[in-house]
Amino acid sequence: MNTILNPLYIAVSWVIVTIHDLLSPIFSANSGVSWSLSIMGLVILIRVLLIPLFVKQIKSQRALTALQPHMKEIQKKHKDDRQKQSEEMMKLYKEHKTNPLASCFPILAQAPIFFALFTVLNGIGKHPPVAHGVLTQHDVDSAAQATIFGAPISSTFLGTTNSTVKIVTIVLIAFMSLTTFTTQRQLMLKGMPKMDSSNNMMLQQQKIMLYAFPVIFAISGVNFPIGVLIYWSTTNLWTWGQQFYVIKRNPTPGSPAFLELQAKRARKAGTPDSESSEAGSTEPSSVEIKGQRSQPKKKKKK
Amino acid sequence: MKAIVVGLIKIYQQWISPMSAPKCKYYPSCSSYAVTAINTYGLKGLFMSVWRLMRCNPWSHGGVDYVPLNSTNTNEALSL
After folding, report:
1. Helix, strand, coil abundance in chain B, percent, nearest 5
2. B10 CB contacts (<8 Å, ≥6 apart)?
3. Tens digit of pLDDT for each residue in B16-52?
4. Which residues of A232-245 are buried (b: 16+ CB within 10 A; e: fewer)?
5. Do residue B18 and residue A202 have CB atoms under 8 angstroms apart?
6. Residue limits of the Membrane insertase YidC/Oxa/ALB C-terminal domain (chain A) (predicted)?
7. A277 touches chain B (CB under 8 A)
8. What pLDDT shows up at residue B30?
9. In whole angstroms, what is the distance from residue A27 CA to residue A33 CA?
10. 3-state DSSP assignment of residue A101
């Protein structure tokens, strides 16, 4: 197992150490700011690397607008057979070589990195600190004593009596819960195509998870070093921001956000509202721009 | 063993998967493919499921992809 994970430890620790070395002249080598920002930098790097995949997905979602008449036809034809409906839908995507679904890859790709980071940070939290990857003993000693808002980033809620650590952990857990909650809620309310009654059970489960998440975070969060919580919070914040951007600018066809955007575009283009409300399938680009007035040309006098 | 793996997948389907927007590129989804494959083929089914999960990536176009059936197992697989 270690032979598989060792390259990951090296990669993760190398990124952290490199960012840390870059930040040291600004925030000093032993400060919690340098170490915390290094962890956040790792998150940002991973998410930036995943952006091309994300853009690819958005592009295929856009291409979907063109397929909407076909999709509506399928929905109508197999109204009572959800299995047939999904089957036909997948066939349609494949035929047009555009699949709007993201696949599990973005999550699966991040999981080993999270695991490696967890091990590296957990090593820093040990007494005495254990070095993984390219971290030297000097590095881990420096990171172990580094504090953020007065709490050592290597400490855990359960492993200390220090009340500052407890408060910082609680704040971070609250932040993680809040970002996950908002991300989930936003997706449920605006990001997904409206569900019919046959999906009621799924909707119910989503609601339960929405409220179960803070509890899960609280239970697991008290066992994690503050550094891991920083990583987690940053990831959540990024996910929220990314989703916010997509829902506003490139919503999934058929979702409430999509209709909102179309209505907005239609209003901007000057078409009457009655038209935009019934047209879920109008191409925004095909809407004619009115109100453009050409300048009268000056006539030449004789 | 089989029951544990299938049980874990069912927990995923029931509780974890609904939290995000549908994202599988295939029909049936990778998780239900895995349930059918493991129930039908056992360990071989597990490898088939891993292979399916690997095929479901950003560069694939997805589509309809059922667990291949051999005649003796048809009934069990169809009941899912």
Report:
1. 65, 5, 30
2. B35
3. 777 777 788 888 999 999 999 999 998 999 999 999 9
4. bbbbbbbebeebee
5. yes
6. 35-247
7. no
8. 92
9. 7
10. coil
**Nearest one of A157, A151, A153 to A142, comparing CA atoms:** A153
Q: Is B28 left (phi over 0), alpha (psi -120 to 50) or beta?
A: beta
Q: CA A246, A47, A208, B11 torsion: positive or negative?
A: positive
Q: What is the mean pLDDT of residues A156-163?
A: 81
Q: Which two structure tokens, joined as six digits, stand for A78?
A: 């197999």
Q: How far is A213 from chain B (nearest CA, A)?
A: 10
Q: Does A56 touch chain B (CB under 8 A)?
A: yes
Torsion angles phi and psi, residue B26, rounded to 5: -115, 165
Q: How far is CA A262 from the centre of its chain?
A: 24
At residue A135, what is the residue type? L
Q: Which residues of A247-283 are buried (b: 16+ CB within 10 A; e: fewer)?
A: beebbbbbbbbbbebbbeebeeeebeeeebeeeeebe
Q: How does pLDDT run across A223-245, given as a tens digit for each residue?
A: 888 888 898 899 999 989 988 88
Q: In the structure encoding, which two tokens stand for residue A32, read together?
A: 């919690």
**What does the alpha-carbon distance between residue A164 and residue B44 come to, in Å, rounded to a whole number?**
52
Q: Which position has the token pair 């176009």?
A: B61
B26/A97 Cβ within 8 A: no
Q: How do residues A84-129 score in pLDDT, each as one tens digit?
A: 888 888 888 888 887 878 888 888 888 888 888 888 888 887 778 8
**A155 in Cβ contact with A165 (< 8 Å):** yes
Answer for the pair A242, A220: CB distance below 8 angstroms, yes or no. Answer: no
Contact residues on chain B for A105, CB-CB shorter than 8 A: 56-58
Cis peptide before A128 (omega within 30 of 0): yes
